[in-house]
Design goal:
It contains four helices and seven strands, in the order βααββββββαα. The protein is of the alpha+beta class. Strands 1-7-6-5-4-3-2 form a seven-stranded antiparallel beta sheet. A hairpin with an 8-residue loop joins strand 2 and strand 3.
Length: 148
């Protein structure tokens, strides 16, 4: 189970604002090129986004559905990646003084990703999360700076 944390130098409300905006999803989710609403109103439980992931010259489509919502503290998603299977991704938002500690917890649920999960996959997830959390922080902090 890949768990990673990052300190964002903005208040929790600013982090939640970005997480709850479906148009900003591709800005912070690593590999995602574009998203389109598929069902419901993001981030309500059951709302779904279709996304396109680019891996070199290859493009893959998938979807992400909101499974659990506790605004402004927790957002749990199920990412469906076609033949690769599905994964649970939980994002926790913790006030940390004037800043925000963001904790991401991801693990595979179904498909080959779940059956073949091992230390190498775990290491790759850690690298992906490190980059994703840095991108999230950049999006949140630049949005806050633009408003100041």
């Amino acid at each position: 189970m890949a768990v990673r944390q990052h300190l964002v130098q903005s208040p929790p409300s600013a982090v939640w604002e970005v997480l709850s905006d479906p148009d900003r999803y591709a800005e912070w989710v690593v590999g995602t090129e574009e998203t389109t609403p598929l069902f419901g109103t993001w981030p309500e439980v059951g709302a779904t986004l279709r996304y396109t992931v680019a891996l070199g010259p290859y493009r893959f489509e998938g979807s992400t559905v909101v499974r659990r919502l506790e605004p402004p503290h927790r957002l749990e998603l199920e990412a469906r990646s076609g033949p690769a299977g599905t994964a649970r991704i939980a994002v926790e938002i913790v006030p940390w003084g004037e800043d925000t500690l963001v904790i991401v917890d991801e693990h595979p649920l179904r498909g080959p990703g779940a059956r073949l999960h091992n230390a190498v996959v775990e290491a790759a997830l850690q690298l992906r999360h490190r980059r994703m959390l840095r991108r999230l922080a950049e999006v949140v902090e630049s949005t806050a700076a633009a408003r100041a």
